[in-house]
Amino acid sequence: MTDFLLVEQLHRMMGELPRPRLMYRKGIGMRGYFKIYRSFEEYTSADIFCEMDRSFPVRARFSALLGDGGTADTRRNIKGFAVRLYSGAGEYDVVCSSLPVFFINRSRDFLELAESMRCRTWFDGIAFEKFWRFVVKHPEALHCALRLFSGEGLTASYRRIYWYSVHTCVWNNEKGEQFLVRYRWIPVGNDRNGLKEGDDRMIMDASYSSHPEYQRRTVSWNEAIFPPVRAGILKLTELEPLEQSEKLCFSPGHLGPGISLWGDEFSDFADYAHKAGGAERGVRT
Fold first, then answer.
1. SS3 for 10?
2. CA quadruple 102, 168, 28, 257: dihedral, nearest 10
3. Is-contact 82 60, C-beta < 8 A?
4. To 10 degrees, the CA torsion angle through 64, 66, 70, 73?
């Protein structure tokens, strides 16, 4: 084959084709706004948590960890919810999951976990034998596995899910003090089965901790010790066209002034994986 110009044009065309996400392929985007209930300036200098008289624009994406566009929403799965808040000081990404814990704490176990969960079929699902072998090999994954195979793993509607931040963030105030924070989104009404049709509002809670045990993703925070604080409300008002929402690349480390990502090995790896996945699809944070 000697037509090198033709080959070059072919590779250029292949590079322009949209590439699917590695995970969380099936999703839907929305727009709206976020407004806080009270000022948290004693904890953070981030304007999205300090300025009570403002509503901050939001872009969000609901998704499913496993499966493609034709996968049923009712299959056992982990759902994802990513929010980007826009302010004058910068942009803040909040990456959340339908489960309050994760399977692993070490980044080197991630590829093995991903391989154990994916079936090589038309509709991806959990490869049960490989998955449970992984859990036996990594006992810290049992907590998340039990939640996945409970009623929490079966959700028919994104609107009735409680969402939990996957990564621990650090709030920094003007005095240089730091606070470990995790977020939780609660559907308005505080009742998973009592939402009214068309009610797409969610309340954000924030919890604070300084104990090293609670920096691990396989551990849920004890609300009796670290009670959540009602932070603000998110209102999603319109659907976003698919071609626009697929150009979004959320990253847990994509944060503005006043908030940073807890800098452990897994957080750094997850932040890189999100950004690298976006770069492969031709999208930047």
1. helix
2. -160
3. yes
4. -50
Ranges assigned E (strand) in the chain: 27-36, 56-64, 79-86, 91-97, 163-165, 169-172, 178-187, 201-209, 229-240, 259-261
Question: Among candidates 195, 197, 191, 245, which has minimal Cα distance to 62?
Answer: 245
From residue 94, alpha-carbon distances to 89, 115, 238, 251 in Å are: 16, 26, 19, 8
Contacts of 97 (CB under 8 A, 6+ apart): 78, 79, 80, 81, 163, 164, 166
Q: Kindly report whether the global pTM for this prediction surpasses the value 0.90.
A: no
Q: Identify the pLDDT of residue 2.
A: 58
Give phi and psi for 71, each to the nearest 5.
Answer: -70, 135
**Alpha-carbon gap, residue 175 to 177, rounded angstroms:** 6
Q: Which two tokens stand for residue 153?
A: 């793993």
pLDDT band at 158 (very low <50, low <70, confident <90, very high): confident
Q: Are 60 and 32 in contact (CB under 8 A)?
A: yes
pLDDT above 90 covers a percentage of the chain that reads 35
Q: How many CB atoms lie within 10 A of CB 196?
A: 8
- Tens of pLDDT, residues 22-45: 778 888 999 999 999 999 999 999
- Rounded to 5 degrees, what angle do the CA atoms 279, 284, 285 make? 130
Cβ neighbours around 285 below 10 Å, total: 16
8 A C-beta contact, residue 214 and residue 239: no
Reported confidence tier of residue 214, pLDDT bands at 50, 70, 90? low
Q: What's the rounded Cα separation, in Å, for the pair 285 and 279?
A: 9
